[in-house]
Amino acid sequence: MTKRRFLLGGVAALGAITAARLLSGGGGSIAAGPATGAVDFEVTKSAEEWRRILTAEQYHVLRDHGTERAWTSPLNDERRPGTYTCAGCGVPLFASETKFDSGTGWPSFWSPIEGAIGTSEDRSLFLLRTEVHCARCGGHQGHVFDDGPQPTGLRYCINGVALDFRPAESA
After folding, report:
1. For residue 163, what is the enclosing H or E element?
2. Average pLDDT score over residue span 112-130
3. Cis peptide before 151 (omega within 30 of 0)
4. Nearest to 105, CA basis, from 158, 26, 152
5. Spacing of C-alpha 12 from chain mean position
6. Can 157 be counted among the known catalytic residues?
């Protein structure tokens, strides 16, 4: 075997592993419990219970750590005052005042509602990222990055399918 074939084989194997992780959503399932290091969440359900209350795409994102395609969420264009809640358990996660257009194709926020979000290390795709999950049910929401606007400098890049929007009530 030549050195060139060995290197090409290694590159092909690495590509196959990366593709498999991308297609699988890149993380472990949290159907009944977290893959986030937390011991318990206030809301826990079996995989079958989650499948009954979530759409297939919501289950893929919230429970299997998947990612929706960029630019597919109607929440990208949502501009009304209100609250973004977890699609799994309904807990308020983000206030509309913290939403901004990051140009990434996913709803982005510079700060969550206090105590609503948990984080964990995500080492999928051969990267180290900070995963964001609902503190109440453990549902995967997205990731947080340090390239956001002030006052926090953070960008919570969230899957729109993992959220519901509740408009503020008119006075």
Report:
1. strand 163-167
2. 89
3. yes
4. 158
5. 29
6. yes
| Tokens 């264009």 -> residue | 77
Three-state DSSP state, 50: helix
* Contact in structure between 166 and 152 (CB atoms under 8 Å): no
Task: Indicate the residue type of 80.
Answer: R
Contact (Cβ atoms closer than 8 angstroms) between residue 124 and residue 21 = yes
**Residue 7, CB-side half-sphere exposure with 13 Å CA sphere:** 3
* CB-CB contact of 90 with 77 (8 Å): no
Mean pLDDT of the chain: 83
In 7-139, beta strands by DSSP E: 82-86, 92-95, 99-100, 108-109, 117-122, 129-134
58-71 residue pLDDT tens: 999 999 999 999 99
Catalytic residue among 86, 134, 137, 157: 157
Q: Give the CATH class of 3-167.
A: mainly beta
